[in-house]
Amino acid sequence: MKSSQYDTAFVKENMMGPNSMKIIEEVAESLTLEKEMRVLDLGCGKGLTSIFLAKEYDATVFATDLWISATENYERIKSMGIEDKIIPIHAEAHDLLFAEEFFDVTISIDAYHYFGVEEDYLTKHLAPLVKRGRKIAVAVPGLKKEFENGVPEEL
Predict the structure, then answer these.
(1) d(Cα 10, Cα 15) in Å, to the nearest integer?
(2) Residues 44, 125: Cα–Cα separation, whole Å
(3) Which residues pair with 89 in a beta bridge?
(4) pLDDT 10s digits, 22-73
(5) Coil, strand, or helix at residue 1?
(6) Which residues contact 32 (CB under 8 A, 6 or more apart)?
(7) For the chain, first and last CA: distance in Å?
(8) Helix or strand (DSSP H, E) at 82
(9) Exposed/middle/buried for 2, CB within 10 Å: 0-12, 13-18, 19+?
């Protein structure tokens, strides 16, 4: 797996939630990602998914997050030597100032459930930014079955 080739300490230090590197690797397999495509990584956190997309697919990634500053992410991106492939952006998901049909692909790993809860979020805010006929990929944490006797100790 491509994601297992990344420095474990770096990944653990920058992980926010489930293992986003493994998740983006699985999601990316279902997408047609090509060199220099413009990808919106919405809710990128500390940029692990953006780093993966830039390094593995040579995509131009717009690493967008509300909670992590663009400057903090830029420092991390520079440390990986890929500052020419990732544009860090600090923005709220309802206030994305991109042109319509600007992106080839939009992804959101472990973040969509924070901002996409409104019934019209997808059609009003996100879909217009993606070129017609292209994909929006979303992965959020989930359970295989409901908890029946409280939350398991390991969680």
Answers:
(1) 9
(2) 17
(3) 64
(4) 999 999 999 999 999 999 999 999 999 999 999 999 999 999 999 999 999 9
(5) coil
(6) none
(7) 26
(8) none
(9) middle
